[in-house]
Amino acid sequence: MLAVVSVALLWLGVVLELLCCAGVLVMRTAYARLHFTAPAGLGVAAVALAILVRQGFSLMGDKSLLVAFVVLVTAPVVSHAIARAVWIRNGRERP
Amino acid sequence: MNEWILAAIVLLVAGLVPVGIAMLTGDVMSAAAAFGLAGPLCSVILLLLAEGFHRQPFVDLAVVLSVVSSGGSLVLARFLEWGA
Fold it and tell me: Which residues of A are less than 8 Å from B6 in CB distance?
């Protein structure tokens, strides 16, 4: 049962990442592309959960959780920083 | 080949290649937006490869990359603000 859950979470994460990549490829402007960069953290979290379900709270599972936490925290920050840079480069005043 | 390595190959071919194409097309700011996705994507690929090859120390690469890539994206965004 745990193996089925692990594989389901793995492919859920892969599909989420592929959707983000397809969105970035299809969209043309930076603002439109940024809508697809922040949700990539959800795909990383799903893959990390898949590893955690398979391995348990071992060194591998803990480190995969750490990766998911770092990406989930920093991906929206990076998106915001890039959007701010686009805003300033377009001649608007600094927010 | 197990499902973890297969998932890593799928993400390398169908995920990282389109992001690379997106980085090479369009203006510099939309390329920076695509670069923001490349870091988490490479991290999850390294995570999958470590699990697929049953090599626990390889996970450290994913941990380091997830920290360094986000910092690099923040520095890049800061430089782009200045009009580089």
Answer: none
